[in-house]
């Protein structure tokens, strides 16, 4: 029996290669972006694909076309691409008229139509039980909108099709320097900055915290986690001088949550600019300060109150390493942290590491959940 260590989940569960192979769907995302390229590169890596049953979901003809195009780029130092003939593909054929309007490097209604159809197909098959996890390549929300699909992102479509109203966007990244794992949940996601303060409520904060606590225990084996929570305003409001949300309701909310979760360490509200100093030190370890031991005292997870508050630090530290995972769904969903990168699409220079770790985390969670009851977080 060949057993490999878990990378992300801190659990006693080891990946046991003699067990049933995890069944993963990998969607191609927007065909005008780098999705197909990062999928073909990730699936060319045997360390990623070993012992997995992977089905690529997308248009077979476009996949073949993109493969041939990328091969012609023949970039030095570029990762290898797998030949699509070696893949299991769930073909999502597109109308000729749609396919002919797809232009590499520029998302439009046709590319949005395609990426929407890929995800719809993957979700439907997963809900039927064909797959345990969906790994999604990036889509452009603007292309979906141009095609008439008005969703903030893939997360919301996944939740809606799963009939789930309580879900969250969690970013997970394991430092290649120190092995430390950064976990960041966003309390609000794809809304205008102007709407953040009004969207945040005690109910929403409790919903996100409950999801995070349950996910940390079930998926990451952390029963009594320490969670750091960012303030909303500069300096967390500076006692009301720079914003009143902390004083008016966030601090009373946190006191109630501490009563509700007496075994957890809930640290808040940490000034949002300084909250990321310790994670960065833990991420880079001795690279930043060679004489200093790796910082301890970090949190198991960070709760950011809005998109850029959480994702600027995640992407600064971990752009090629971070995984976007949707929590609260009845199945596993992971995705690279990057977008469609239209500016480099078709050039053969896209880095596939984030896609590789997204597949690795999906596989690890799938393996682990085989022995666990299905999450019920409603
Ligand atoms: N999970 C998803 O489906 C996501 C989708 N998006 C979508 O992607 C589109 C473009 O968003 P942007 O903000 O421009 O972010 P982006 O991540 O697509 O690109 C930002 C910069 O990083 C570079 N980059 C991104 N991924 C790379 C990779 N794998 N290798 C090398 N360079 C890479 C790009 O060339 C660009 O310069 C938007 O429509 C957005 O909605 C963005 C983030 C996640
Ligand atoms: N910034 C994260 C992001 O855009 C992910 O969106 P999605 O996975 O919901 O499509």
UniProtKB/TrEMBL annotation:
It comes from the Bacteria. Binds 1 divalent metal cation per subunit. One of its GO terms (biological process) is pyridoxal phosphate biosynthetic process. Its main location: cytoplasm. It holds the Pfam family PdxA. GO terms for cellular component: cytoplasm. Its cofactor is a divalent metal cation. Keywords: Cytoplasm, Metal-binding, NAD, NADP, Oxidoreductase, Pyridoxine biosynthesis. It catalyses: 4-(phosphooxy)-L-threonine + NAD(+) = 3-amino-2-oxopropyl phosphate + CO2 + NADH. Pathway: Cofactor biosynthesis; pyridoxine 5'-phosphate biosynthesis; pyridoxine 5'-phosphate from D-erythrose 4-phosphate: step 4/5. The active site is located at the dimer interface. Homodimer. This is 4-hydroxythreonine-4-phosphate dehydrogenase. It comes from Crinalium epipsammum PCC 9333.
């Amino acid at each position: 029996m060949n057993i490999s260590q878990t990378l992300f989940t801190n659990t006693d569960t080891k990946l046991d290669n003699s067990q049933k192979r995890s069944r993963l769907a990998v969607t191609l995302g927007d065909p005008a972006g780098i999705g197909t390229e990062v999928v073909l590169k990730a699936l060319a890596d045997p360390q990623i694909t070993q012992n997995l049953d992977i089905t690529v979901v997308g248009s077979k003809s476009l996949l073949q076309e993109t493969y041939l195009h990328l091969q012609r780029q023949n970039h030095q130092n570029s990762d290898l691409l797998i030949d699509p003939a070696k893949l299991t593909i769930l073909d999502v054929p597109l109308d000729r008229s749609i396919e002919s309007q797809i232009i590499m490097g520029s998302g439009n209604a046709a590319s949005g139509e395609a990426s929407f159809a890929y995800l719809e197909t993957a979700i439907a098959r997963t809900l039927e039980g064909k797959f345990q996890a969906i790994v999604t390549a990036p889509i452009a929300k603007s292309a979906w909108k141009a095609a008439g699909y008005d969703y903030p992102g893939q997360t919301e479509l996944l939740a809606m099709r799963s009939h789930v109203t309580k879900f969250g966007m969690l970013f997970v990244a394991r430092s290649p320097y120190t092995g430390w794992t950064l976990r960041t949940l966003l309390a609000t996601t794809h809304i205008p900055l102007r709407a953040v303060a009004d969207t945040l409520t005690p109910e929403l904060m409790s919903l996100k915290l409950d999801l995070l606590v349950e996910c940390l225990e079930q998926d990451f084996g952390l029963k009594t986690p320490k969670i750091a929570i960012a303030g909303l305003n500069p300096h967390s409001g500076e006692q009301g001088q720079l914003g009143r949300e902390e004083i008016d309701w966030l601090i009373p909310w946190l006191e109630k949550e501490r009563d509700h979760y007496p075994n957890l360490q809930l640290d808040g509200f940490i000034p949002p600019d300084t909250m990321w100093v310790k994670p960065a030190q833990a991420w880079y370890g001795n690279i930043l300060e060679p004489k200093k031991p790796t910082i301890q005292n970090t949190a198991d997870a960070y709760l950011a109150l809005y998109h850029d508050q959480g994702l600027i630090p995640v992407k600064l530290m971990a752009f090629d390493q971070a995984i976007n995972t949707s929590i609260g769904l009845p199945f596993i969903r992971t995705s690279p942290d990057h977008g469609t990168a239209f500016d480099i699409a078709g050039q053969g220079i896209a880095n596939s590491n984030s896609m590789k770790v997204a597949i690795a985390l999906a596989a690890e969670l799938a393996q682990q959940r085989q022995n666990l009851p299905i999450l019920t977080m409603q």
